[in-house]
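for the record, two folds in this file. i put them one after another cuz i was lazy. first one right below, seq on top, structure tokens after. the second one comes after a little note so u can tell where it starts
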Amino acid sequence: MEEKMVKRFLGIISLLVVLSILAACGGAATPAPAQPAQEEQKPAEEAKPAEEQKPAEEAQPAEEQKPAEEMAAHRYGMVTDVGGIDDKSFNQTAWNGMLIAKEKLGVEVQYLESQQQTDYEKNIKEFISQGYDGIITVGFLLADATKAAAEANPDVPFAIVDFPSQAPNILGLQFAVDQPSFLAGYLAAGMSETGAVCTYGGIKIPPVVQFLVGFEHGVKYYNEKHGTDVKVLGWKTDPAAEGGGDGAFTGNFESTDDGRSFAENFFDEGCDVIFPVAGPVGLGSAAAAQDRGFMMIGVDTDQYISAPEFKDVFVSSVLKNMDVAVFEAVKAMEEGTFQGGTNYMGTLENNGVGLAPFHEFEDKVPQELKDELEAVKQALIKGEVSTGWPVEAPTEEAMGGEGEMSLVMSFVPSGDTEEILASGDELAQMISERTGYNVTANVATSYAAVIEAMGAGNAQIGWLNTFGYILAHEKYGVEVALATVRFGSTSYKGQIITQKDSGITSVTDLKGKTFCRPDPLSTSGWIIPRITLAAAGLDPDSDIKVVDVGSHNNVVTAVYNGECDAGATYVDARSSVEDDIADVKEKVVVITESADIPNDTVSFAPDVPAEVREKVVQALLDIASTDEGKAALEQLYEIAGLEPVDDSFYDGFRADLDASGYSIEDFMQE
């Protein structure tokens, strides 16, 4: 019976959300919260019974023809969090649910506004002392006061927003806000013109951090898909840090001055899309965004509607449909179907959370980005993409124990993608057999995509090139474990090639020419050549036309076919296409070679437990000693062996990079 009631409760919530969305599409404005005059909303100790107070906004109950005593039979109170009933965000959205209950059910509703945290207990007790039939508390911070009151009054039904049930007479109203926040991050990254977006919270509590984590991971996912490097200012997820990460918090949910100050600082750092998670504090950020001509994503409710004075800055809003959940909680109390000791979870799937319309940005958001957002939404619903929430340091126990752990091993697309994937699958199977882990392989769309996948927790093992590893270590704390061995060495050289009859005999001859590279982050294919070009007096950004062709093999082929005047690869990438182009070494010649470069890596994401990493490393070393393993490694990247190394192995390359006058950040802009 209880299960049926809960299912009915969830089903009604979903239906009401759909109906509310349809109403919004028809042009209906979101109702403003009731703001009783001071003489009607007396201090808690003097508050009149709800039936004596003037109905909010003069709205008449739907059943006004019923006898007065029947109308006054049931009263429901709501205790707000700090920030005000008219915060145009959190409290206001919950109160709208109470107003819906008043209109639809004919009940009396009242709120008591908490000015400070010490008001929580006092306000709840005031409703209890007046004999209210049910109480809604709004916010994580009210959990202790709600639990204490519920335990002391077991016959009174309670519902609390943003906290799970802690007693048989409490219904928890929770929301998977990390899901729409992930979409918001993806949207922000797609709309940013500066390559930097930002976010901040009010108080560092889980329901706030949940937004920030989702937003950050949405940006990372966009970077992974597009090979971009959009930065997130204001939050960085870190399983080892208290509260799940480090970020910017105002420490309150009231000060719009703080909201303006935080936004101005972020804008000065290059952010052009801001996502505040701090209730009315965010209105100060909206004002700053309006002044500076930047964009903002609202929170909790559609702030284009609730804060129309700033509607020109809202690209969208993360919807946390508390109004519908609160209404359903009151309805269940009123109809006798209330189920305490249970929890409701609003998700993208049941429309308990979502992303608001683009409104005035409808024509500014590219159709391609809209299509991607819908695809990402469906992937989130199916559980195919992780939002990063909850933030937990992975351990074998937490991930299901040995034999159930899943690891993704990602490879850079430096050669023939099909061959890389085939050998990668073989290696994944061999590792699985030796470790008991479920290891899968993929080939990323770019070098940067591997880095971003590791940073977002979507890949645990990365076969990164030299510069890619240094960048991943700098950005996300990725750690190398193994270096590849070729021709008995853990280093290699790069080369610049051209057609034999091109007339190009030196680097200086490349001015005005077309230059093919495998990837902007390829060490031998661009990092070293860029330094070489600059050393020869050429401006790599203006003196040559750079063309990205996707792999070292493609560079050789493009030069052979005359599609590029010259290009850069590792030594000697010509051998990799010799089976298809027999005379490639005759027609494509080398004009210069680089100094030694430390070989590419097998690296691990920072959240991979040490015991897991050690087991995978030992498995790979064992694989490299077998005939089957040697064949797979040879096909993969022409690897002859693997050798354990640590991060210091790459210090010499870092020093050479510094000596050239370039920094890691210079290449991150490519």
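(here's the note) second protein begins now
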Amino acid sequence: MLKFLNKVGWKMQKRDEDVINKFCNEIGVYRGFFKVWMHNNKNTFGKKDNPPLDGEETTN
């Protein structure tokens, strides 16, 4: 699921509806379950390369 969501950009857009429905059918989950899982895991898995916030130190 992570690979697929990285491909579609962690958003369920109208233009991707057919691809999302096909993917859900292939892996055997309901579209609603997939949407909830995506929303619940977007912050954990979706954003890997976040720039540091102002005031945060970086180690180089």
